[in-house]
Specification:
The complex is a heterodimer of chains A (444) and B (315). By secondary structure, chain A is α/β, with parallel strands linked by helices. In chain A, 48% of the residues lie in helices and 13% in strands. A five-stranded mixed sheet of chain A has the order 2-1-3-12-4, sandwiched between helices. In chain A, strands 8-9-5-10 form a four-stranded mixed sheet. A two-stranded antiparallel sheet of chain A has the order 6-7. With 315 residues, chain B is mainly alpha-helical. The chains are: A alpha/beta (444), B mainly alpha (315).
């Protein structure tokens, strides 16, 4: 009986000790940050150790592979789930998340903490933080600046025999293309060529059908050729802008590049497939978001001096735009730990943390970092990144963006990859689809 | 007058059981046992079905919790049934369904017929043949994506070797004319063993005495095949067709992994189309109407088919 009493007392003591330990630990919040599973996320884990040390909060991460990122995270937001306290969500989600009150509006917090949106690259503020666009309503802080750009095999371009052959054929030097026509010429020049005993191809471009790939790719040609989402003077007036003759020419150019110069079977390719094609030495040019550039630069086969970087080239009229990528960081409205989440954003926005973020491989959107005189020469891709960020345009960020995106995915893939109809048909169809979506949304 | 199965169960229950449980009749005890299953069935099958039907008459979008939900009558149904894209995906589904079933039945039955012959190592062959159906469709899709790769894929290499063409001159999953066949080939590779196993069960259920009697009557092998083997295996074969038909009507993972519905929308089956409407465009009401149409189609076709199957079994 005595031993039974002793055992009970011991068990009770242990319980109290464990409970006390847990209670003291619970004072520091456990925050979960949700993002895509990619290299920058790993850099953020490293960066956030500083926040953990300073705040005492413990960071947890939910990183989802890109193909499932939108499905997973939008399900989480729509269901009011509490998994994520902080979410680095895609720029297109801002409209829906703001209108459905899924993100916390950050204006008061920014005012209180003295955080100014003027301190960030303007395009990232419009793209990642504002809803409605161009209004001072902020739902995120720009976290990761990204844009579509190009990588090229600098070592191949610099070969004297190829230089001579190219000059003879096209009457100009084999160098970074100034416009889309020159880009197609270069891709055509390399297509099917044998280099170092291996057959190589022109360009790896976005053609993916399932999520957003071909839209994120084709838009680069369309923007630079003169595509407009709507009449600048009359919102949601699409006719003659989406399907203008310039836009048609842009889509034709993208198809031309796909038909002439992509590796065999490159019909459903997005970020990963393009990186794979480039890193394996298959292609001379690669279209991809700039987040891939640090990885390319560090690669044993194609990194260092072997690769160069350039912004999306201009169209025939000299207009030059590129598709915006990247994300802002938001506090999820359903989170019970909004105060701690806001603390994280405050910490993350500090210039010294943003500087460290860039050094770890994250593209800072803070002007203090990117406008520092040392920035442009800090990495071989830093200047092309800045040049690219200066020419960005973004896809619709409307709450109905997903329907708009699915329509463009289908229309572009049908024309570019599946050879169905003409570019004009595709864009006329797109106008019809998008008008339908906006009609459903009560915009007309 | 006893009507329901529960009444019959209650009447068949010995009185001793009710006597042991105070205050409860046999009928109440029977209900107590059956009730959890009924509640579960209602909760996970019937309620969602009714809810889906209700949503199909609205403009509800799950990503717009604050928007008012309007009753739109038959608009979703009309939009779906007059949408060319949906009819195209129906055609793609029909193509996939018909060809996979035809090929799987022919090859599956032939394999079963061969395996049924007594020869050394037929158990080993059976095991080897059924391996593909044990794999996950996602793995199979990924695996065949590599096989179909124009530059390094074994499939292209074999075709190139046999035809003398450059293996990288064609792409099974990038060509609008070849992509539908690419998914038919993979599904046939994966699921023919299933049909084979069912046919094998049918073949092995035929008593030898029937063949012996036919031999006594001097019936030829061909005659035995058509008058004994085929009629007796037919119910099994029809069962296999039913299973594969229902499975392939809702085929999703394999095709998403292989082609993502492309190129263009050539291989976009109804299940992929429905998923896009429901979970990418978030058109919940519209997608519910779409799901109801598909449900009615499968249910209707399966009911007709089961009636035919029962007739064949009764012969």
């Amino acid at each position: 009986m005595k031993s039974l009493l002793m055992s009970s007392a011991l068990a009770a003591g242990m319980y109290i000790a464990v409970s006390a330990g847990t209670a003291s630990h619970a004072q520091a919040a456990d925050l979960t940050l949700c993002w895509a599973a990619w290299d920058p996320a790993n850099a953020l884990v490293e960066l956030s150790k500083d926040f953990e040390a300073k705040s005492g909060n413990k960071m947890h991460y939910e990183f989802v592979p890109w193909p499932n990122f939108a499905d997973r995270m939008l399900n989480e937001l729509n269901s009011g789930g509490k998994l994520c306290d902080l979410l680095i969500g895609d720029s297109q989600w801002i409209g829906g998340a703001a209108e459905n009150k899924q993100y916390v509006k950050l204006n008061d917090f920014f005012d209180k903490e003295g955080i100014k949106m003027d301190d960030f690259i303007p395009a990232t503020v419009v793209g990642y933080a504002e809803w409605p666009k161009n209004s001072p309503n902020y739902w995120a802080m720009p976290a990761f600046g990204d844009v579509v750009g190009w990588t090229y095999r600098k070592d191949w371009f610099s070969r004297p025999e190829l230089q001579a052959e190219f000059k003879k054929k096209y009457g100009r030097d084999l160098t970074i293309p100034k416009n889309w026509d020159e880009l197609v010429d270069i891709a055509q020049f390399f297509q099917g060529r044998e280099i170092d005993g291996k057959k190589v191809y022109g360009a790896a471009i976005y053609t993916e059908r399932g999520s957003e790939g071909i839209t994120m790719g084709a838009m680069n040609a369309l923007y630079s050729y003169g595509f407009e989402y709507q009449n600048p003077k009359k919102p949601y007036d699409l006719e003659g802008f989406v399907n203008s003759s310039d836009a048609v020419a842009g889509l034709e150019e993208y198809k031309k590049l796909y038909d002439c110069c992509t590796p065999p079977g490159h019909s459903d390719a997005y970020m990963t497939q393009d990186v794979d094609a480039y890193k394996s030495g298959q292609v001379a040019l690669q279209m991809n978001f700039t987040f891939t550039w640090p990885g390319i630069n560090a690669d044993a086969n194609v990194g260092g001096d072997k690769s160069g970087y350039f912004p999306n080239p201009a169209g025939p009229k000299g207009v030059q735009f590129a598709q915006l990528g990247g994300q802002g960081i938001s506090v999820v409205a359903a989170s019970d730990k909004q105060k701690e989440a806001l603390d994280y954003i405050k910490w993350f926005g500090q210039p010294e943390i943003q500087q460290k973020w860039w050094k770890l491989g994250g593209y800072s959107a803070l002007r203090a970092v990117v406008e520092d005189p040392s920035f442009a020469s800090s990495q071989p891709y830093a200047k092309p990144f800045l040049d690219s960020m200066a020419i960005v345009k973004d896809f619709w960020a409307e709450p109905a963006y997903a329907s708009l995106l699915q329509a463009s995915q289908k229309r572009f893939h049908d024309y570019v990859v599946a050879n169905q109809g003409s570019a004009k048909d595709a864009l006329d169809g797109l106008v019809k689809d998008w008008k339908g979506v906006f009609e459903d949304d009560g915009k007309y | 007058m006893l009507h329901s199965p529960i009444d019959r169960v209650a009447s068949a229950t010995p009185p001793a059981i009710a006597a042991r449980v105070r205050g409860l009749s046999d009928r109440a005890i029977a209900w107590l046992f059956v009730a959890p299953s009924i509640v579960l069935l209602l909760a996970i099958n019937i309620f969602p079905l009714i809810w889906t039907i209700r949503l199909s008459f609205t403009n509800f979008r799950v990503n717009r919790p604050n928007a008012p939900i309007e009753f739109v009558g038959l608009r979703n149904y009309i939009n779906i049934l007059t949408d060319n894209d949906i009819w195209q995906s129906m055609q793609a589904t029909a193509h996939f369904l018909i060809w996979t079933i035809v090929l799987q039945v022919l090859i599956g039955f032939s394999l079963a017929y061969l395996i049924n012959k007594k020869f050394r190592g037929n158990d080993l062959w059976t095991t080897i043949i059924v391996l593909p159906m044990m794999l996950s469709p996602a793995v199979v899709g990924n695996f065949w994506t590599f096989l179909y790769q124009p530059q390094i894929g074994l499939f292209n290499y074999v075709v190139g070797f046999l035809t003398g063409n450059d293996p990288s001159s064609f792409s099974m999953i990038a060509s609008t004319s070849l992509a539908p066949w690419a998914i038919v080939i993979v599904d046939t590779w994966m699921w023919t063993p299933f049909v084979m196993l069912i046919c094998l069960a049918g073949l092995r259920s035929i008593p030898n005495s029937i063949y012996e009697a036919a031999e006594c009557d001097r019936a030829s092998k061909w005659r035995q095949f058509w008058t004994i083997t085929i009629p007796m295996v037919l119910p099994f074969l029809m069962l296999a067709v039913l299973f594969r038909g229902i499975e392939n009507f809702k085929m999703f993972d394999l095709v998403v992994q292989l082609t993502g519905g492309g190129p263009g929308s050539i291989t976009e089956l109804t299940s992929i189309n429905l998923k896009r409407a429901a979970f990418e465009q978030w058109r919940t009401g519209y997608a519910s109407a779409y799901a109801v149409i598909l449900f009615v189609t499968v249910f209707g076709l399966a009911s007709i088919y089961v009636k035919a199957l029962n007739k064949v079994k009764q012969r």
